[in-house]
Amino acid sequence: MLFNKILIANRGEIALRIIRSCKELGIKTVAVYSLADRDSLHVTFADEAVCIGPAQSKDSYLKIPNIISAALITGADAIHPGYGFLSESANFSEICEESKIKFIGPSPQMINAMGNKAFAKETMKNNGVPVIPGSEGVINDVNEAKDFARSIGYPVIIKASAGGGGKGMRIAWEESEFENAFQTARGEAEASFSNSDVYIEKYLENPRHIEMQIMGDSFGNVYHYGERDCSVQRRHQKLIEESPSPVIDESLRKIMGEAAVLGAKSVNYEGAGTFEFLVDAHKNFYFMEMNTRIQVEHPVSEMVYDVDLVRQQILVAAGEKVETLPRKPVGHSMEFRINAEDPEHNFRPSPGRIESLHFPGGFGVRIDSHIYQSYQVPPFYDSLLAKLIVWGKTRNHAIARGRRALEEFTIEGVKTTIPFHLKVLDDERFISGNFDTGFIDNFLTKQ
Ligand code: MV4
């Protein structure tokens, strides 16, 4: 039974993205907004809107009682959390459950299990998914950890079990650095996550970051929509993503896809999920962590698999089945994140008023964005203004189209990452597809 009304517990482009899929399904929508977002498009485009508090996220988009109240008052029967904010809060998922509101995302148990990175890795390893060589679960004793590091050999990386995305992570290149790296990682983990558990892995130098998109249903079926190559990152912030990856051929896609599907089935995963892998220069792949949400970069998979992933999320949450026949990606897609940041000054945030705006268009160009002319970019949230997603028949065609679209794109009033993307598109390494997670640091040093 499809939902009658979905509350979108998010803002910005992803709130609009979810509203669009709801409308196409004939589902009514409720927006929630902070005082800073009164004039936002998600408020305009939803059927109803409820103010949930002041500008600061902790007082609005993270305030569970306010969001649940908004759902109860408006009679919403489901909540879509988008990405960020409460999307990976086990507590929120549980409170939705208790309030008889369907959380369009995983169960609290699943969020807890996959949020514990050491546990998630052990679970995947025990189910036959290749993982990065490392400790069996958490090691919190420094001497035991040091012995283990010596046994696998340097360099090693110490990771916060409650972390993900780079926080509470330290590399030790040799034994003399180990103790300091270990204690620093633990301290950062405690400060950031109130949990100092860490685990140890062999450090892979400059791998590629490749993730598999999966979708599970409530009957135990899991389908995969190929990979996204997210190796173009700066300080763990992705800047460009693409699908397919220039280094994944049909046979490796099948193997990695099957590994992700196996992993998801082994935990009875339901809904949209992402398996993050590191891929080394010899194309060995290793599971790193799993994300239990729709991700910012999901559109590149949508473009090459001709699938609306948010629509599928809603349908499987309502009890429908996932597709079963394997498909191949068609063409090539790239996403460029247009942030209100100044690439000339270390990507510092550049909030302010959008004085003039022109979106690119034409064949193979998609914009997911909540901005408009005269919109005030608030300083309180992340700096994503728009996602430019292009599709081309080949990778070279996607690059040419990306360049053309970025040249058409005009945003005045705030600094953006558009000029940075244009420079990357002229870089030989990027054009050749021969890049890894070390690419951006190297690229920025040369500039
Ligand atoms: C690693 C690694 C090398 N070896 N683990 C960064 C974010 C977090 N999710 C894990 N990360 C890494 N883990 C081992 N054993 C290198 C990184 C890494 C990285 C990974 C993906 C994309 C960009 C990155 C940039 C620096 C380090």
Identify the CATH architecture of the largest domain.
2-Layer Sandwich
- Name of the CATH class of the largest domain: Alpha Beta
Q: Unreliable segments (pLDDT under 50, ≥5 consecutive)?
A: none
Percentage beta strand: 25-35%
Number of domains: 3
Q: What is the rounded distance between the termini?
A: 55 Å
Task: Supply the number of helical segments.
Answer: 15
Secondary-structure class:
alpha+beta
Q: What is the share of helical residues?
A: 25-40%
CATH domain topology of the largest domain: D-amino Acid Aminotransferase, Chain A, domain 1
Characterize the biggest β-sheet. Answer: 8 strands, antiparallel
Could you tell me the radius of gyration in angstroms? 21 Å
Number of strands: 22
Bound molecules: ligand MV4
Summarize the structure.
This protein is α+β, with helices and mostly antiparallel strands.
Structural features, described:
By secondary structure, this protein is of the alpha+beta class. The chain contains 15 helices and 22 strands. The strands form 6 sheets. An 8-stranded antiparallel β-sheet has the order 13-12-9-10-11-14-21-19, sandwiched between helices. It has a 5-stranded parallel β-sheet with strand order 3-2-1-4-5. A 3-stranded antiparallel β-sheet has the order 7-6-8. A hairpin with a 2-residue loop joins strand 6 (156-164) and strand 7 (167-172). The protein is globular, with a radius of gyration of 21 Å. The structure holds ligand MV4. Residues 132, 157, 164-166, 201-204, 207, 209, 233, 236, 278, 288-289, 437 line the site of ligand MV4.
